[in-house]
Amino acid sequence: MANNGRPSGEDSPGGIQVIARAAAIMRALSEHSSGMSLGAIAKDIDLPRSTVQRIVNALKQEGLVESLSQNGGLRLGPEVSRLVFQAQCDIISQIRPHLEALHSTLGESVALCRLSGSQVIVADTITAERELRIVFPVGTMQIPIYSTASGKSLLLDMDDEEVERLLPEDMPKLTVHTRSRQALLKELKTLRQSGIATDYDEHTIGITGFGIPVETYQGRYCVAVVLPSARVPAIESDIREGLYRCKADIEAKLSTEL
Question: DSSP 3-state assignment of 210?
Answer without folding.
Answer: strand
